[in-house]
Amino acid sequence: AHENRGLQSQPPPEEQNYGPAAAHVRQGPFVSVSRNGPAKRDYLIAAVLCYANLINFMDWFIVPGTLIDIQKYFELSDGDTGLLQTVFILCYMLAAPIFGYLGDRYNRKIILGAGIFFWSVVTLGSSFISESYYWIFFLSRGLVGIGTASYSTIAPTIIADLFEEGKRTTMLSIFYIFIPVGSGLAYVLAAGMADVTGDWHWAFRITPCMGGLALVLLILLVPHRTQRRTAAHRALSISGTIRVAAERPDVHRTAKTTWCQDVISLAKNRSFVWSSLGLTAMAFVTGALGMWVPLFLYRAQVVQGIVPPCLQESCNSSNSIIFGGITIGTGILGVVAGAEAARRLRKINNKADPLICATSMCISALCLYIALMVAQTNILSTFIFIAFGELFLSVNWAVVTDILLYVVTPRQQSTAIALQILVSHLLGDASSPYLIGIISTAIQAKNAHSFQWNFWSMQYSFIVCAFVGVFGGGFFLLTSFYIEEDRKEAEQ
């Protein structure tokens, strides 16, 4: 959907668009719109888009925040419950390139507004579905994923076009930081509303109201046509994680190549292949944790006798609130720490980036394994080790992006990002919730029904994440063997 266009002579600024502008930019001369600096209105528009991004990711994780109640209400097995998030992410993943294509060619404000309105209406409607129509609830989550894709792929382009290079990086970083913040707040909001009202359905009625406010602000403050930059900045943003790329306008294709030829070339880039597999392992673990941790903790507490089994209409949601806070804190701290560690260690080791990723993945896997093992005896220790596991996972997000940007030639970066995102979603966070769920269901089916086996089934299925994390560390370690060679080749 994001086609390499190059520079055109005197293009109409209201028509030309190169998709999302990049937050990470290679050194080199740029052709940019002459400005005297961003106006206050630009910052106000960026604030509106950040607010909408917050709601976007709150809607994404509203189901895991009330998972216990939803599972009981629709009488779903663990396998069917995991499918809820899988349906959402698959629809999101498949719809995002379509909206990227539309955003390149049509009015972005209209597409953004339509997306916000669509996902808000569908989310609100899903709160009125009765227990006998569970399939409609599954369908609604897929539709919400489509609406979410319309926003995630286009909103960064408007922010990128409002600011010059230095400010642009800062503003996009602020925009992206609302991903972990919104994800964590989703658990807090969902659990809080379920506790206050005694009905989990109300969690699905708050974000549509917030979305309505975002739509009004979008209509009032965002101009109908935003200035498109004339430099060939491009990026593709798809997923529960955003990756950005930039292209120097002074770099031109020396030969016409097809998409298939680019894919074949990337398949020969060993650093790209191994780092993409490492990213897929990260997405797998992150998707499973985001979906199942609150339910796993609840089952552990039932086995320990800390909380009674949930038989009433609304279950105890304190685990979702705590996990939401952990997600917010570790997400922000991890991204910042990872970027800073990479900046410092690159000065003394050219292989620092993949080694940081390999180390943090292995430490994260160890922390998650310990959390699983102590869950039946000590809930506090479980929370602590889950927090460290998420922290070390978050360290890698920014670093993996940098690896792709300097081992892939500029003219292949959009194709590389598209492939990496497709694989990481398809084999990662789109698959892991369902896989963990069906393993848990299979274990329960072979044993007598009890609260103890409900816990053990989830514990045993979760161990898959620890092994995947170790494999992810191995993939990043393999990346370190080839990264210097591939970086030099890309620079040439």
TrEMBL record:
Major facilitator superfamily (MFS) profile domain residues: 45-484
Chief location bin: membrane
Keywords: Membrane, Transmembrane, Transmembrane helix, Transport
Pfam families xref list: MFS_1
Coiled coil: none
Disordered: annotated segments: 1-20
Keyword set includes Membrane: yes
Gene Ontology terms for molecular function: transmembrane transporter activity
Localization per record: Membrane
Domain of life (superkingdom): Eukaryota
Entry GO terms, CC: membrane
Membrane-spanning residues: 43-63, 83-103, 110-129, 135-159, 171-190, 202-222, 272-293, 321-342, 354-374, 380-405, 417-440, 460-483
Topology versus the membrane: Multi-pass membrane protein
PANTHER family hit by this protein: PROTEIN SPINSTER HOMOLOG 3, SPINSTER
Protein name as it appears in the record: Major facilitator superfamily (MFS) profile domain-containing protein
